[in-house]
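Suppose you are handed a protein chain with no further information: no name, no annotation, nothing but its sequence. What can you learn? This example shows the usual starting point.
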Amino acid sequence: MTGAEKAAILLLYVGIDATTKVFQHLDDMDIKKISQSMASLGHVSLPVIQEVVDEYNKITSPDAGFFSQGDEFVRKILEKALGVSKADMLLQELHTTSIGDIEDILSEMDAKTVANFLSQEHPQTIAVIVAKLRPKQTSDIIAHLPLDLQAEVIIRIADVDQVSPEILKDIDDVIRRELTSLGGVQSFKVGGVEKVVEMFNHLDRSKEKHILDKLDVMNPPLAEVIRKHLFTFEDIFKLDDRSIQAIMREISNDTLTLAMKASTEEVKEKVFRNISSRAAEMIKEDLEVMGPVRLSDVEKAQTEIIKIVRKMEEDGKVVIAGRGGDDVLV
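A reasonable first move is to predict its three-dimensional structure. Written in structure tokens, the prediction is:
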């Protein structure tokens, strides 16, 4: 048995409430794997249950095996753990295609290898494939594609919204011919502008600027939309002072100092106004004595701070009313 099958048996045995709590701590990929196993288990015998329970050092004494409730059980758990909307999206993907298998395959490969493999494919095919991956992996792969191909793929990711099962089956064959579609008549969301923006947030600034410059020529409206939605380091300092103060408390002085190396005087002034006078003096001194630094190190520090701000936004600690901003120049 695979790990997903063992997890499915154990969770089906302990019931919906316990499974719901477990699912709340898993990522989407693990939930999809376990849900697929749940839906396909059928009858599970007592010896198999006992074997799984023993392996997980659980004490149990069931009187008989059970028959998997399949889709209905999965739906109830997903809805309780993730909400109706997200549950519907995951179930739709489970029933429409074996695209999760593609994600598993690509997740085991480094970005450069995947980019070399995909670079021979049509930009539309590349877009559909990478749009289903995690944003960080998507950005890494695109960064390794030929320069002339990068903007082409970005445009198509933004345009890809609904994909038919037939197209997904063709793409399955491109990646691994032995994979087959699970069928279904629905289509599901794989891309869109939101996906592009999320992917851009994982690119370094120089790569981001290069692609946006290309998009300015190839598709100006799309470039404008992306810029409006991108949240930059400078955007943090367009927030109100109370929000900035909350953000500053979550950031180390070393990270903040390095991130400010490329900042304007206006940004620096706003930072100093929203931290303690002692911390401000220390950062000013460090900036004065700091020698040349690599642009990539500055961007890394800024990206780290942006991630902290996004997490705070998710937790409701700050409210970001608008997005947008200019590139940072060093």
